[in-house]
Amino acid sequence: QVQLVESGGGLVQAGGSLSLSCAASGSIFRIHVMGWYRQAPGKQRELVATITSGGSTNYADSVKGRFTISKDNAKNTVYLQMNSLKPEDTAVYHCNAVVAVTVVGGRVNDYDYWGQGTQVTVSS
Fold it and tell me: Are 49 and 69 in contact (CB under 8 A)?
């Protein structure tokens, strides 16, 4: 019903910058919130940043002041600008969206969607 396609990521030296993007497509009635989560090897998935339909943002303490989340409503796309990257930022970054979807019968239901993930590696 809804697909999230991520792009960006890669390998960068500590102190460098990378940007990620995630485009949502499909039977979208409304996107309530989009965000980024990450999972490092051997660790649980953790929140990085989220942004609501109204533009309110939330960041993990570990990335405040270094990462910026933004969105383009017309493109149903969320971005994550990552600056001053540290080796501990190395992880697979996953896009997430909570989306209101029109279903059979004209009803609207909320669903939680995830992207396939993109690797971010920061070398020391």
Answer: yes
